[in-house]
Amino acid sequence: MVGLTMAATIASSLQAALSGAGQVRLKPIEQVQCYDFIACSHWKTRASNSAESLHQCENLSVSMNLAEFRAPKNSLRRDGQSVKSYASPRAGPVGNGVSASSSKDTAILWFKHDLRLDDHPGVAAASAYKRVLPVYIFDPYVCAGWSKELLESLCDAVSDLRKELRLLGSDLIVLTARTEHVLSRLAQKIGATSIITEEEVESTWQRTVHSVLESLEKEEPSSISETKLELDQWSAPLYDTPESASIPDNYQAFQRIGLRTLAPLPSPAKFPGLPEGLTDTGSLPDFKEFTESVEAIRRKNPWWETLKAAQSQPGESLLPQASNPSSSKNGVSSAEYSPFKSVLKWRDEYILEGPQASLLKKQGLDVEEEEVIGEYFIKGGATGALNVLQGYLRFLEPTNRDDYKAVYEHIWEMEKKPGASFRKLFASSLALGTISRRRVIFEALQYERDRNGGRLSPFGFSTFTVGNAVGDVKAMEWFDLLQRKSELQASEKGFHVSAWRWKGYHIQYSAMGNEDGPAVLLVHGFGAFWEHYRDNLRGLANKGYRVYALTLIGFGRSEKPNMTYTELVWAELVRDFIVEVVKQPVVLAGNSIGGFTTTVVAGLWPSLVSSLVLLNTAGKVIPDYKGLTYQKPGESSPIAKPLSKLLLFYLQSSSDKLLTRCYPKQPSRVDKWLLEEVKRGVSFCG
């Protein structure tokens, strides 16, 4: 931990450089038929009108034969802390653990990134009302940081959700507007007494919900209903777990608790009709027009063109130019110079050479190595996601189905990094909530039982795809639980901890200070986390700066996915954080390996860095500068994993001595909290 003294040092450096800112839960499901949808990466154009009208459809209920599952505990609750004026005494639980009362009349079911009916606690809660208005809002401000591929998946998922609701005699009201501007007015118009929506972990969505809460506080009761409007939030926990504050910080300790995983909720067999008087349900916006409106929002930031240009330049494609300055004669730009321009696009993982390719090369045969480029998304929304999951789990089985064969081809490509296929294939489905984590676990374990005579083998999973799915989903759930606990712990110390999704991965950071002040981004060293700068945050904030400190992927309480970690992975994470979170050039300060990372960022994307502060940096920066060099990671050695475990064991057992050496003048800084937090992060890696 660098103390306030270092904060003053950084502050003085910055001055010189600059002289020339929830609550909820629920349930389970059954076996669902597969449909013919495949993984795809092309957008299908839809001709539709961009509408802000709200409205209705006929009520025709269709019953389905669904297996019954035991529901977990009640997971819906009022937001009585954020909007105290809206809180009312809760009614007792009924049915599936959903609170109900005789006054339940009309509710709005606000979909965000939970675009499914399967395993949806909000849908179960809405079923207790007489009339329900399902709503999705295409908000350009919310989507301003989304990729084109994710926006394509969004339109596909919303279309599928609307189709499923229409089969139940309801409909999905589709709006294109600012969420906080239309949601409260819509509730007023139909006399809704409740808005049902998902509890959020990610900071962007938390801000959206908060803006809606603020707009609701300003509204008077509807003339149709005299009852104050309430915001009910839900979540779908994977585990039957106690409150976040009581869970262990250590992943191994958490696993030893042996918490029961909860079954998914079944899709509804029927659903309440729409409120009377609605005549138009709206239509999906024209994709081109909507992306243009998103781009218009981005352009309101005076730094957007600079940020956009930097983010569009993959670090690897810039390295040949950076490592050979003489090649830029006659003003040729790095993008023009790069011989990889047509193939080197941003990739969130660096793919290792597959074992089969290695064998062929050793035999002297030519192999054309394919690369996984860009993002994949699954067509068909929730229906397609479930179908692709069935195909994914059955990867080792022969099949005559063309859709499964297409899935298999994608898996072969993505498994060049062993174990990476699930997150890459289902990235958009998990981001949009077209499939739930509980559904993934349920289907994976059911498949295992089917293969093993109705039992789970004590020797592990029978296919690597099942292991990938179960392991990745449990890790995602763990980091969400840890985020909620981190928020409570940080608030007790006067900090606010936020979660940011980078390429689908959970990244933790903290921010404080003057929103109008110069932006500063602090990057920690090896084995550390954002709390490394906890005193510097306060010191710099008190001097008028807007200060951010993030935890790099693979460290602290940020996610530790199965990927190849390189200097470019961390550098591109820092770059994207500047573009998507800070949204303007920053003063960049880094310690140890964080110093090396920030140097790479400043070297490759100098337009994002107003000045650079290095604190005991790693790497040979000056003297003997010879330019940036980068070597792609090679194939993993068989002894790499045992050696890494040995190293982790050494770090765990020797962390107190190693940390004391880092604080020769203030050994008291190596307190119990620091030791436990460092060991906690290392234990998860092991």
TrEMBL record:
Residues 323-334 have a biased composition (Low complexity). PROSITE patterns: PHR_CRY_ALPHA_BETA. Residues 105-239 form the Photolyase/cryptochrome alpha/beta domain. It comes from the Eukaryota. Residues 80-99, 314-335 are annotated as: Disordered. This is Photolyase/cryptochrome alpha/beta domain-containing protein. Keywords: Signal. PANTHER family: DNA PHOTOLYASE (PTHR47832). Coiled coil: none annotated. The keyword Signal applies. The keyword Signal applies. Residues 1-16 form the signal peptide. The gene is LOC112280026. Pfam families: Abhydrolase_6, DNA_photolyase. InterPro entries: AB_hydrolase_1 (IPR000073), AB_hydrolase_fold (IPR029058), Crypto/Photolyase_N_sf (IPR036155), DNA_photolyase_N (IPR006050), Rossmann-like_a/b/a_fold (IPR014729).
